[in-house]
Amino acid sequence: MKRYVLFDHTADLGIEIYGADMKTLFENAAFALYDIMTDLDSVGTGETGEIVAEGTDREDLLVNYLRESLHAFNGKGLLLKEQAITAMDEKHLVATFRGEFFDPERHRLDKEIKAVTYYGAEVKQTPRGWVARLIMDV
């Protein structure tokens, strides 16, 4: 199963994410965020940390999780190679990450993602698993 695909959206970036369960869906969404931004093969795993997110529903939780994940780069200069959800319910999650600080000599930014938006945010269960659709401001 694919982890994600991109879809056309006027002036922004649309992402459709897949997962067998909600935990995998959220992990694949975090993977997609950084996979779109950079070549993850060039990113090491020497830095570790935790991301905590809350939301009023699944969509809000996913958007807030990805915003916190993106803040690791925009606020701290970290590229996150791996993220794993360690605790999750309908309105809270905790994830651990591994990555490294951005080094322009070793890393290239393919696409700058400025923000994860609520516009068109959707998380739903289908007969084939979970699917989410998000719009990113680039």
Helical content stands at 25-40%
The CATH superfamily name is Archease domain
* Quaternary assembly: single chain
Name the overall outline. Answer: globular
| Rg | 14 Å
CATH architecture: 3-Layer(bab) Sandwich
Counted up, domains total 1
Number of strands: 7
**What is the CA–CA distance across the termini?**
26 Å
Q: Overview of this structure, please?
A:
It is a single chain. 25% of the residues lie in helices and 46% in strands. The protein is α+β, with helices and mostly antiparallel strands. A four-stranded antiparallel beta sheet has the order 1-2-7-6. Helix 1 packs parallel to helix 2. The two termini are 26 Å apart.
Strand and helix layout:
Blueprint: E1 4-9, E2 12-19, H1 22-37, E3 47-54, H2 58-76, E4 78-88, E5 92-101, E6 115-126, E7 129-137
Antiparallel strand pairs: 1-2, 2-7, 3-5, 4-5, 6-7
Helix pairs in contact: 1-2
